[in-house]
């Protein structure tokens, strides 16, 4: 039985994640308020960000930057700006 959440990013009732994928309080907030679909969108953006900015996940500063971008994307409705990336036109 899948669970649904009112997704903070997509503003609709959608399938929630099966388990908490991110640690701590923020992870719980994501689990409770972010759909699988929105998390998938974030994963895509995150990969692009890591590649674009050549982030090292061992570096606490880089992890902090990524976490800030994640919160902005998932909860503040902000899009991730990737240098030199042009989204496909609708």
Automatic annotation (TrEMBL):
<keyword id="KW-0408">Iron</keyword>
<dbReference type="InterPro" id="IPR007457">
    <property type="entry name" value="Fe_traffick_prot_YggX"/>
</dbReference>
<dbReference type="GO" id="GO:0034599">
    <property type="term" value="P:cellular response to oxidative stress"/>
</dbReference>
<protein>
    <recommendedName>
        <fullName>Probable Fe(2+)-trafficking protein</fullName>
    </recommendedName>
</protein>
<dbReference type="Pfam" id="PF04362">
    <property type="entry name" value="Iron_traffic"/>
</dbReference>
<dbReference type="GO" id="GO:0005506">
    <property type="term" value="F:iron ion binding"/>
</dbReference>
<comment type="function">
    <text>Could be a mediator in iron transactions between iron acquisition and iron-requiring processes, such as synthesis and/or repair of Fe-S clusters in biosynthetic enzymes. Necessary to maintain high levels of aconitase under oxidative stress.</text>
</comment>
<comment type="similarity">
    <text>Belongs to the Fe(2+)-trafficking protein family.</text>
</comment>
<dbReference type="InterPro" id="IPR036766">
    <property type="entry name" value="Fe_traffick_prot_YggX_sf"/>
</dbReference>
<dbReference type="GO" id="GO:0005829">
    <property type="term" value="C:cytosol"/>
</dbReference>
